Amino acid sequence: MRISFDIDNTLIPYVDDFEVTPVNIFWKLIGVESLREGTKELFQALQNQGHEIWIYTSSHRSLFSLKKTFLLNGLNPKGYINGKRSEQYLKKYACDASKNPKLFGIDLHVDDSEGVRMEGNEYEFETIIVHPKNKNWVTEILQHIETL
Ligand SMILES: [Mg+2]
């Protein structure tokens, strides 16, 4: 399956809602962001099961900055969608949703937003919604995916 992950409040906290794996000071200085505890294990487990990982954020981080963060955290997602790319596709397909992973051939999208869950129901894309305070998120996502 092609599985995408939201960034803000899912893999990178707005404040301190979840623990991150800190990056070293030099990387931090060049703008590399720290990812949620468990991100690496989760991505590796999913990739070992043959799934393809994508990043889908509506934030306006550049593609370069997204790639920098994931690559320097030792992760290599297959595809990246930022706010700009998402908006281009939504416009092209005249879709009113804030995100539509289906337009990118994505089978499942992981997000923190209840609004995205509702859009998933309306626009028929599969979601898993993870609360920022959920410490068991890696296990729950892996278990959920096994049932699909
Ligand atoms: Mg979010």
Provide a brief overview of the structure.
The protein has 148 residues and is α/β, with parallel strands linked by helices. It contains six helices and seven strands; from the N terminus they run E-E-H-E-H-E-H-E-H-E-H-E-H.
Lay out the secondary structure.
Blueprint: E1 2-5, E2 20-21, H1 25-29, E3 35-36, H2 39-48, E4 52-56, H3 63-72, E5 79-81, H4 83-92, E6 108-111, H5 114-123, E7 126-129, H6 137-146
Parallel strand pairs: 1-4, 1-6, 4-5, 6-7
Antiparallel strand pairs: 2-3
Helix pairs in contact: 2-6
The structure holds magnesium ion.
The CATH superfamily is known as: HAD superfamily/HAD-like
CATH architecture: 3-Layer(aba) Sandwich
- In total, the number of strands is 7
- How far is the first residue's CA from the last residue's CA? 10 Å
Q: Which value, in Å, is the CA radius of gyration?
A: 15 Å
Helix content: 25-40%
Shape: globular
CATH structural class: Alpha Beta
Structural class: alpha/beta
Bound molecules: magnesium ion
Biggest sheet descriptor: 5 strands, parallel
| Helix count from the secondary structure assignment | 6
Runs with pLDDT <50, length 5+?
none
Approximately what portion of the residues adopt beta-strand conformation?
A: 15-25%
Number of domains: 1
Give structural notes.
This protein is α/β, with parallel strands linked by helices and 148 residues long. The protein has one domain (2-146): 3-Layer(aba) Sandwich (Rossmann fold), CATH 3.40.50.1000. Helix content is 37%, strand content 16%. The strands form two sheets. The protein has a five-stranded parallel β-sheet, with helices on both faces. It has a two-stranded antiparallel sheet with strand order 2-3. It starts with a strand and ends with a helix. The mean pLDDT is 97.
